Automatic annotation (TrEMBL):
Compartment(s) where it occurs, according to its Swiss-Prot or TrEMBL record: Cytoplasm
This protein's name: Two-component system response regulator YesN
SMART domains the record matches: HTH_ARAC (SM00342), REC (SM00448)
SUPFAM superfamilies: CheY-like, Homeodomain-like
Annotated source species: Shouchella xiaoxiensis
HTH araC/xylS-type domain boundaries: 414-512
Keyword line: Cytoplasm, DNA-binding, Phosphoprotein, Transcription, Transcription regulation, Two-component regulatory system
Protein origin, superkingdom: Bacteria
Residue intervals of the Response regulatory domain: 4-121
């Protein structure tokens, strides 16, 4: 909070001396102006009020006491200290009667003046902080009443014009909110909303922009920026504020802004218009948007994807299903439609797809599958194309399960075995493999053991040892190099597993089984 001080004295040397020789900034005074009489002081006050005035008494045109009497009436929050060369009890008594903070005699004791100013500025800052808090609470109540029809105290309604003459409404969403909910711990996810709100509020405050922020939904931050000066709310100014906010926010945010308005009577309409604007731009990018793109309604999805998906499901090819769906979503997104349009088209495709599967295989129960995509989807949470793609993919996985309900377990395990063979050189973990195939770790362990007769680690070790034994006989690579190649970080563990499975150490195995040609190498 800035404190502005005005020094008033008809002697320029004293004005300049006081303004320049005392380190006012260290006392919390960030701006110091001067005037040479009471009338000049009032002109400056009319342009922009001051928090503190240091004034002489004896000045031409308007003396210090006359100035004090006017300021006390017109600017009751402004504090005044009189500095005078008159050691006159009458002047001092009159000044104190007017409510002046103190009366100092010239020549001024600098330490006394500094101590007095420090005390007065502390009082000013305390008052400003309380006023700001009261104002923000009142504006928040006004915003809640305008948007959600909460009760509004009469005193707030009456004082609305005192706080601002112009405002802009903004709503922000964390991009990829549903993915964060799945990837973060419950404790970390609970901090997402507050961290984004803090980033927005800190950026607004650092730019000197008055504001209040509140959540209208778990992923909808509503921010009201207001001022008596509409220029402060220009697109350029808001862009600077939000650029800093996005740098401070630990998560990407997408924000839409209303135009500059003067009456809260329009606030609800603007809020509804912002919802439409957010619907137009959601999932497209991050940043601040003032105007939505002109969109043509995307009426239909590419028909070839319908055929490809049906074929992929009927052949139990999960990888083809996933690849085909990804291409479909990518194609729909590139057409320029909104996320809600994309969801509508995916729902239409899914219903058609479900019907065709049922027609081809009437003995199955595709129509009874509880499809996630057909339910209400909160796009403020699932606000990216990838989130919608994941919902659709889980429905397609259910179609695959229904297609071969009896053989579903075998089909899942066969897919997992193919996955392991492809990635066995990596640091594979059972929980991660289970997640990749949309089953729980416990179910995965039970199912894998049932279908293969081995645990996941036994199967993985068997595959790695088989590959390493081949490499021992067909290459001249060192044993530790082969161990690393097939996925073992610890050489001793590799030797231990190898000997357990084949009864020999890798080196002994190579010596006994190497061909003459390999021996020559």
């Amino acid at each position: 909070m800035k404190i502005r001080m005005l020094i008033v004295d008809d002697e320029p040397v004293i004005c300049q001396g006081l303004a320049q020789t005392i380190p006012w900034h260290s006392l919390g005074v960030e701006e110091v102006a001067i005037a040479f009489n009471g009338k000049q002081a009032l002109k400056k006050m009319a342009q922009q009020p001051f928090d503190l005035i240091l004034t002489d008494i004896s000045m031409p045109e308007m003396d210090g006491l006359a100035l004090a009497e006017y300021v006390v009436q017109a600017y009751p929050d402004t504090k005044m200290i009189i500095i005078s060369g008159f050691d006159n009890f009458h002047y001092a008594r009159q000044a104190l009667r007017l409510g002046i903070e103190d009366y100092l005699l010239k020549p001024v004791n600098v330490d006394e003046l500094i101590g007095l100013v420090k005390s007065v500025t502390a009082t000013i800052l305390e008052r400003k902080a309380q006023q700001t808090s009261d104002e923000e609470e009142a504006v928040t109540q006004l915003l809640l009443h305008s948007l959600f029809q909460t009760p509004l105290p009469k005193r707030i309604e009456v004082k609305q014009a005192q706080w601002f003459s112009a405002y802009r409404l903004l709503i922000s969403e964390v991009v990829g909110y549903s993915a964060l909910q799945e990837s973060l711990s419950a404790e970390a996810f609970a901090q997402v909303a507050e961290s984004v709100k803090s980033a927005v509020e800190e950026s607004c405050s650092s730019h000197g922009l008055k504001h209040v922020s509140l959540y209208g939904h778990e992923n909808e931050l509503i921010t009201l920026c207001y001022s008596d000066n509409p220029d402060v709310l220009s697109n350029k100014q808001l862009s600077n504020v939000w650029q800093d906010a996005m740098k401070q926010s630990p998560y990407p945010i997408q924000t839409v802004a209303s135009s500059i308005s003067e009456s809260f009577a329009h606030c609800l309409v603007e809020y509804e218009q912002l919802h439409q604007l957010m619907d137009d731009v959601r999932g497209q990018s991050v940043g601040l948007t003032f105007e939505g793109p002109a969109r043509a309604r995307v009426a239909m999805y590419p028909l070839e994807f319908e055929t490809k998906l049906v074929e992929a499901v009927l052949t139990n090819d999960a990888s083809s299903v996933e690849a085909c769906l990804h291409q479909l979503i990518k194609s729909l997104a590139s057409d320029g439609g909104s996320l809600s349009q994309l969801v509508d088209l995916c729902r239409k495709l899914e219903r058609t797809f479900q019907q065709k599967l049922q027609e081809r295989l009437p003995s199955k129960s595709f129509q009874e599958i509880d499809l996630r995509l057909q339910k209400d989807i909160d796009l403020r949470c699932y606000n990216t194309t990838s989130a919608i793609e994941q919902i659709f993919l889980r429905d397609l996985i259910d179609f695959l399960g229904e297609l071969k309900e009896a053989d579903h377990s075998n089909w899942v395990i066969e897919n997992i075995k193919r996955y392991i063979k492809k990635h066995y050189q990596q640091d594979l973990r059972a929980a991660e493999v289970a997640e990749q195939h949309f089953i729980t770790p416990n179910y995965f362990s039970m199912l894998f053991k049932k279908e293969t007769g081995q645990s996941f680690s036994e199967y993985l070790n068997g595959l790695r040892i088989q590959k390493s034994s081949e490499l021992l006989l067909t290459t001249t690579n060192k044993v530790f190099e082969i161990a690393e190649y097939v996925g073992y970080k610890e050489y001793k563990y590799f030797v231990q597993v190898f000997k357990k499975q084949l009864g020999l150490t890798p080196t002994h195995y190579r010596r006994l089984n190497a061909t003459e040609e390999t021996m020559k190498k």
